[in-house]
């Protein structure tokens, strides 16, 4: 199960933070590290600060975009120090986040996403996530180093995994009952946007309405079967509109 839990670091500036994050991961049984356009990698400093987790650094997958990093994941949780304008489901307690992440990881890939050292994830990157999580800290000084944040959330994930009964890992859920991947949700939102524009409901391709609907479906968390039903409805509306 733990290999299904992916740690994604976006545009890490200091290579030492990659090594320190790998060390934090390994202590909690995680080994799936993905790097999105790191500034400097590979680098000896990353290897040095891994301190026993060099294998995670050596096997880290480097990709060119956050979309590529999480397209096959059914849940993507962005670690964010503050709420954003996009009203995604938000976990105030990391323990609650870890329970749902581990439950989904039994059958499918999931991801925890961490942003840049200085300013975290952008709003556009948060839109690639299904949820957000914040780490409660001193309100007068709530600044965590990147690897510290990875350590805190990796610990919560490991603790949630240890507390699940063995029976949860024996019988996989049917595919249609599982959450859709981010790629499947993306195809649905593209389909929905196309239908809305064709009907005249939305006249601008980047209208706020589309963002609000994406947030709505993120909160609803439809299954793959339910998403297929919605896409069938959209296809039917398209056929009716195009009929002579």
UniProtKB/TrEMBL annotation:
Domain tRNA/rRNA methyltransferase SpoU type: 5-155
A GO MF label: tRNA (cytidine(32)-2'-O)-methyltransferase activity
Cellular localization per UniProt: Cytoplasm
Family: Belongs to the class IV-like SAM-binding methyltransferase superfamily. RNA methyltransferase TrmH family.
Keywords: Cytoplasm, Methyltransferase, S-adenosyl-L-methionine, Transferase, tRNA processing
EC identifiers of the protein: 2.1.1.200
Gene3D superfamilies: 1.10.8.590, 3.40.1280.10
Gene encoding the protein: trmJ2
Function according to Swiss-Prot or TrEMBL: Catalyzes the formation of 2'O-methylated cytidine (Cm32) or 2'O-methylated uridine (Um32) at position 32 in tRNA.
InterPro entries in alphabetical order: Alpha/beta_knot_MTases (IPR029028), RNA_MeTrfase_TrmJ/LasT (IPR004384), SpoU_MeTrfase (IPR001537), tRNA_m1G_MTases_N (IPR029026)
Pfam families on file: SpoU_methylase (PF00588)
Quaternary organization: Homodimer.
GO biological process: tRNA nucleoside ribose methylation
PANTHER family: TRNA (CYTIDINE_URIDINE-2'-O-)-METHYLTRANSFERASE TRMJ, TRNA/RRNA METHYLTRANSFERASE
Lineage of origin: Bacteria, Pseudomonadati, Pseudomonadota, Gammaproteobacteria, Oceanospirillales
Cellular-component GO terms for this entry: cytosol
Reactions this protein catalyses: uridine(32) in tRNA + S-adenosyl-L-methionine = 2'-O-methyluridine(32) in tRNA + S-adenosyl-L-homocysteine + H(+); cytidine(32) in tRNA + S-adenosyl-L-methionine = 2'-O-methylcytidine(32) in tRNA + S-adenosyl-L-homocysteine + H(+)
Protein name: tRNA (cytidine/uridine-2'-O-)-methyltransferase TrmJ
């Amino acid at each position: 199960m733990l290999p299904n839990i992916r740690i994604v670091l976006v545009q890490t500036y200091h290579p030492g933070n990659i090594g320190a994050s790998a060390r934090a991961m390994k202590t909690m049984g995680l080994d799936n590290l993905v790097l999105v356009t790191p500034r400097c990698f590979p680098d000896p400093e990353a290897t040095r600060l891994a301190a026993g987790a060099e294998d995670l650094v050596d096997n880290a997958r480097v990709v060119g975009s956050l979309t590529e990093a999480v397209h096959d994941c059914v849940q993507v949780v962005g670690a964010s120090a503050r709420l954003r304008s996009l009203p995604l489901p938000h976990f105030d307690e990391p323990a609650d986040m870890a329970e749902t992440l581990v439950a989904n990881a039994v059958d499918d890939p999931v991801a925890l996403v961490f942003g840049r050292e200085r300013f975290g994830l952008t709003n556009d990157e948060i839109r690639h996530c299904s949820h957000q999580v914040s780490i409660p800290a001193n309100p007068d000084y709530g600044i965590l180093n990147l690897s510290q944040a990875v350590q805190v959330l990796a610990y919560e994930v490991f603790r949630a995994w240890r507390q699940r009964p063995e029976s949860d890992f024996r019988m996989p859920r049917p595919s249609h009952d599982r959450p859709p991947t981010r790629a499947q949700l993306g195809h649905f939102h593209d389909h929905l946007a196309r239908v809305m524009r064709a009907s005249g409901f939305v006249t601008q391709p980047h209208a706020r309405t589309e963002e609000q609907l994406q947030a709505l479906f993120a909160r609803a968390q439809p299954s793959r079967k339910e998403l297929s039903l919605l896409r069938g409805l959209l296809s039917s509306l398209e056929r009716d509109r195009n009929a002579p």
